[in-house]
Hints:
Order of helices and strands: EHEHEHEHHEEEHEHHEEHHHEHEHHHH
Radius of gyration: 27 Å
CATH superfamily of the largest domain: Luciferase-like domain
Strand content: 15-25%
Strand order of the largest sheet: 1-2-3-4-7-8-9-12
Shape: globular
Number of strands: 12
Largest sheet: 8 strands, parallel, barrel
Number of domains: 2
Oligomer: single chain
Amino acid sequence: MTYSGPALRFGAFLGPYHKLPLNPTLAIERDLQLVEHLDQLGFHEAWIGEHHSGGVETVASPELFIAAAAERTKHIRLGTGVASLPYHQPFMLADRLVQLDHMTRGRMMFGAGPGQLLKDARMMGIDPATQRDRMEEALKVMLRLFAGETVTHRADWFTLEEAVLQMRPYSDFEVAVTGAVSPSGPKLAGRLGTSLLSLAATDPAGIERLAGHWDIVESEAAAHGHTVDRSTWRLMGPMFIAETEEQAIKDVEHGMRWLLDYLAHITPTALGSYTDVRELVKVVNDSGRGVVGTPEMAIEQLLRLHEKSGGFGTYLFQASDYANWPATKRSYELFAEQVIPYFTGQLDPMMTSYQQVIDSGTEGAETTARSQAASAEKYQAEKQQAEKAHSGV
């Protein structure tokens, strides 16, 4: 199977997911270094999460992280992935994001969600059953503020009185909402005309719903006067690659089983506990839930996602400490070297040009040899003529 769709974009979704025990200072530094690494390799974007408990996901403020990462990078776009809206006064968060848009010169993206960790909500006295409604209410208000409106809004958890942002955004930055297995995320994205982050795209329960989810986005968008485009749709999934499948399996012995066990405690569709990493990798690969293997296997997975979804714009790695730090960086390097060109249209013209040279046989070498011989003969003739002229003086 070959890829014939529009050029894909690639990035990473950093929870971030770290294997414990780990020095938190080092964890944050490595997350920043990873974003630098992705920028240098030509990845297009990175999304950074917000979490306040669990010990694994160590970024409390994606805005602070993005401000630091923007100073270290040149090209990569940086998104809140995602800001948990029920935890924030909407005006204050909107104001900070506009400042961040200016500080990054338009490289900032705003991803919004309800918040995932039960412990986070409980520590702030928030009823988890209210979080999705609060997220939608806050986002609607924030979109009005970004548009320059003066907003008065009274809710049971925040109040705005003639609130207006003192600065307009630097750019028309992208806004995205999350979706998993249920239709609530796609429905909200269509209703508000935002982008969609599908965070369970490779889950067996999620992948079969991908095409239907985009249908929901389009129908809701049409009903509410918005235009949506598949190029803004992002799919996220686990992926780790090495030179060989056997090497990839050895590499993920470092942390994959540990991290997926953690996710099983916070995500209803996550895999259960496995004592044998090889058995776990087999389940991940055979189910299509992710890829632990080679660049060729990564290409096959992306082609499968393209077919199942009907087309999307960006694939995001679920950035995790499956392997140690050097092997993790190498995985992204291999992907940038061998997978990204396959889906961006850059590989075909280079291979075509190469094949034209090969198909010409030795014509190029023979032509060059004749030119070199002619040049040598010309030089000798000129030399002899000069010697004759000199001897006659």
